[in-house]
Amino acid sequence: MHELPLLDVVVLLAYTAGVVGLGCWFVRRSQTTDAFMAAGRRLPGWAVGLSIFGTYVSSISFLALPGKAYAANWNPFVFSLSLPLAAWLGVRFFVPYYRRLGNVSAYHALEARFGSWARLYAVACYLLTQVVRVGAILFLVALPLERLLGWDMRLIVLATGVLVTLYTLLGGIEAVIWTDVVQSLVLGAGALACALLLTFDMPQGPGQLFEIAAKHAKFSLGSFGPSLAEATFWVVLIYGLFMNLQNFGIDQSYVQRYLTARSDREARKSLWLGALLYLPISALFFFIGTALFAYFQARPGLLPEGLSADRVFPHFIVEGLPQGFTGLLIAAIFAAAMSSVDSSLNCSATLTLADLWKRHVRREASEREAMWVLRISTVFWGVLGTSIALALAVFHADESTLDLWWKLSGIFSGGMLGLFLLGLIARRAGNAAAAAGVACGLAVIAAMTFLRTPFHTFLVPAFGATSIVLVGCALGALTRAARGGDGSRA
Length: 490
What we know:
490 residues, mainly alpha, 19 helices, globular
């Protein structure tokens, strides 16, 4: 086990204490439901944008993207290239739509369009995916930190889960956003520092890095061929567009942030900033992976044999960084994890109140009762997500177990974008047509996920959403035609 130097421990603990303290400081400003869920709708766009960026980047991305670039090339970076188009569509259509409605729930409008089942379906999908996401993030961040810090994995999971739940519980969405601002800055600074150290620590200077990378085609964006069975440039681009539309268009974690901005202009600015900031930062992560490949190619004796690609970056953090920088990088990994988890907890609590309690238990709940529901549900989702992470740690889950969890949650959440687009596009599609479309879409997603098909799995979101829209539109048109044929009013 590696023992972290005292300076790095001080840096890490100081950062953690500062973030938790900042989050708890907002307790006085989160005493009403509007403040807890929407920060009084008074925040500047730049802060909301940094929070959107912080939510977008998880600790999984911080560690996994360099691993992908180290093992292969920059093909997954094409996902980020879809962000400008997705952000434009979000600013053009989604932000004004939700700001005009003004409801803190992203799924309130689905009930008015298709009935209560659609709202419940979307809420259940979101809560399911978020609790799995919290558990997976806490578990996966503990894997490298166990080796980096020499601490027990269960202690890391428990400490991270408790601290994030604490400041989210006390400070509400405003605490989430302002701590995300700090965490985004730490994350970016840590990644930039690592990239610079790798670049200028090459034996023959920075040029050697690019020579080695070019020789092994490490900057390649993948094939530009027409195949739909491989992760070509075009397949990854389509995947990125649909996934980013799902994020910016129907994900509560993003929609709720649009409402915290103090004006429509600031809300649009926040989405542009959050989306476009991820583009260079993700490129920085991929560059780190490429630089690691060149670094260890130039120093082959420094890398232990049999080390997997996703373990190379943590190994470098421990062995290749000077004291103080290691603490900064570990703090950045924590930052990525905390900025993802706090958002999931606050948004899950918001939906619990807005879409479950006030819709099905007590419509006219008092302010005091509503605040109790928000705080209790924040703790509930925090405990549940942390418990899932602890269970994964205790039973020594491997990547195949997590992949199965993500596939199952992907089946349930995959129909959300299609349902939302159907509501926007097809005015003729009613309740029955939408339900049939969702059923068909889920069947397509499940088949492409678990059965052998001639298409790459990256196309699952696109095929699922498109099938829902097409089936819903077709059934809506047939229903309207049948009513017209009966002489009834269309």
